[in-house]
Amino acid sequence: MQIINVRTGRPYTVKIENGILSRAATLIAAGMEGRHTVIVTDDNVAPLYAESLRADLQAAGIRADLFVFPHGEGHKTVDTVTALLSFLVEKEITRRDFLVALGGGIVGDLCGFAAAIHLRGIPFVGIPTTLLAAVDSSVGGKTGVNLNGLKNQVGAFWQPSLVLCDPETFRTLPAADYADGMAEVIKYAILFDPALYKSLLGDFDLCEVIAKCVDLKRAVVEEDERDTGRRQLLNLGHTVGHAIEKCSGGSISHGKAVAMGTVLVTRAAVERGICKENFTASLQKLLLSHGLPDECPYPLTALLTYMKSDKSAAGMRLRWFYRERSVIAFSTRSRFPSFPHCFRRRICYDCYRFTRAPASGCDQRTRVEIRRAPRNHRGGTRRPYHKHCIIRALLRHARNARLPFGNGRVLHACGGRTDRHTDR
Ligand SMILES: NC(=O)c1ccc[n+]([C@@H]2O[C@H](COP(=O)([O-])OP(=O)(O)OC[C@H]3O[C@@H](n4cnc5c(N)ncnc54)[C@H](O)[C@@H]3O)[C@@H](O)[C@H]2O)c1
Ligand SMILES: [Zn+2]
Q1: Whose alpha carbon is nearest atom 44 of ligand 1?
Q2: Which of 39, 81, 109, 245 for a ligand 1 pocket mutation test, highest count of atoms within 8 Å of Cβ?
Q3: E strands within 270-312?
Q4: Where are the alpha helices (DSSP H) in 2-152?
Q5: What span, in angstroms and rounded, lies between the C-alpha atoms of 176 and 60?
Q6: Pairing outcome for strands 12-16 and 2-6
Q7: pLDDT truncated to tens, each residue of the chain (424 aa)?
């Protein structure tokens, strides 16, 4: 069994093992005996796994009820949450009790959100049954639902109490949904782990790959639980990906759109001479081998229109496109030993933009330094900084010291926290 401890505000454990679902009730009961639970799931997953889990929980001394809602993004809504909350009231679920999210990312997001707001928060256990949920949505505590056609417009940060992942459940998953999960796995490999990237080109142990991805996400989430900085790295390929999803009117799934988005971003990085040319070909080969598209059917101009017309965030989104391009350069340069000299510029490790100075080789000496970096600032003083990062650092320092500094405008001007990008 692979075990990963996530040390967020409320720590929890992720356990990954083939067949763990059959032991889930025992594992859950270990901390929750005598309590009452509601298993939340969708109508595809319910007939496959819900009844046996319910019977196991009952046998382990946990009274279990079942709430099933129709599958699909169209039902990830406030209405479904309201129905679930009414069900929880009807079943007299108290703060001592808990929920179980049995299903893909939609079930996890919706159930987690209901858990976050029912009686101002009750525990929930995640049992992801899609690859995407296993490697991405079940870890990190982002919960929420859609509103007025806007994805994840309403939500909360609410960490699960336990996550149990059984990769055997993916056997019943349609191939297209499985491929969507692989797009996120490839994203982690590009961002953080060249060995994982290589292993994906050949045979690999799925449990190990999931554990690796969960561990990579754990590290990012522990550092930036509220998604104000480093966690935004996980949006690689997503700015363009979201535009592709919109362009297709929803017919291209999230994973496939992200795959296309990553290729576009990589190509842009290559065109600017900041990423080695052969990286695009290698990425395309990897995507194709996992049943993912390697080309975007829409011209960049069409995508830009969507990015521009995207609510009030137009400017930010475009900026994000450029930042993503930088991120790919950053990750390929610093993480791929075989690409050590492919970048002509240095990257700022705080905002992932480029410094003006051309880099010589892999030397990462700083050009601009702040002498006394804030104590908790990643990277200390030995990394290159942009001027605006120095401003950010000073602002942070000022806040800690309770100095009367303005925030919004200055932060915005220096590409800081107002420049948020909502994924999922
Ligand atoms: N919270 C986060 O951090 C985060 C991260 C990424 C994505 N998300 C969200 O996750 C959602 C997408 O998740 P998803 O890709 O898992 O989609 P999903 O939950 O819709 O699952 C995909 C389909 O597979 C079915 N299914 C699930 N498990 C199955 C199984 N074992 N066998 C057969 N069928 C099964 C579902 O009923 C559904 O029809 C989106 O709403 C996205 O916003 C959230
Ligand atoms: Zn994604």
Answers
A1: 137
A2: 109
A3: none
A4: 24-32, 51-59, 78-90, 105-117, 131-132
A5: 36
A6: antiparallel
A7: 899 999 998 899 999 999 999 999 999 998 777 799 999 999 999 999 999 999 999 999 999 999 999 999 899 999 999 999 999 999 999 999 999 999 999 999 999 999 999 999 999 999 999 999 999 999 999 999 999 877 788 999 999 999 999 999 999 999 999 999 999 999 998 888 888 988 998 889 999 999 999 999 998 898 888 877 677 778 788 878 888 888 888 889 999 999 998 888 888 777 766 667 788 888 999 999 999 999 888 887 777 777 665 433 434 444 455 555 555 655 554 443 333 233 333 444 444 444 444 333 333 333 322 223 333 344 443 444 444 555 555 555 445 444 333 332 222 222 333 333 333 3
Does domain 2-172 fall under CATH 3.40.50.1970? My reply is yes
Contact 187 CB / ligand 1 (< 6 Å)? no
Cβ count within 10 A of residue 67: 20
- Measured from the CB, is residue 177 less than 6 Å from ligand 1? yes
Ligand 1 closest atom vs CA 152: 43
Which residue puts its alpha carbon closest to atom 2 of ligand 1?
Answer: 137
CB of 105 shorter than 6 A to ligand 1:
yes
DSSP state of 292: -
Strand ranges (DSSP E) for 343-417?
345-347, 354-358
Contact 163, 15 (CB under 8 A): yes
Residue spans per domain, the chain: 2-172, 179-205+223-343, 361-424
Q: Would the CATH topology of 2-172 be identical to that of 179-205+223-343?
A: no
**97, two tokens:** 């009790």
The first and second tokens of residue 1, run together, are 């069994």
Q: Check pocket membership of 159 for ligand 1, CB cut-off 6 A.
A: no
Q: What radius of gyration, in Å, describes the C-alpha atoms of the chain?
A: 22
Q: Is the CB of 173 under 6 A from ligand 1?
A: yes
Mutate to test the pocket of ligand 1, among 21, 113, 252, 424 (most ligand atoms within 8 A of CB): 424
CATH code, 179-205+223-343: 1.20.1090.10
Among the atoms of ligand 1, which is closest to the Cα of residue 184?
Answer: 6
Q: Is the CB of 167 under 6 A from ligand 1?
A: no
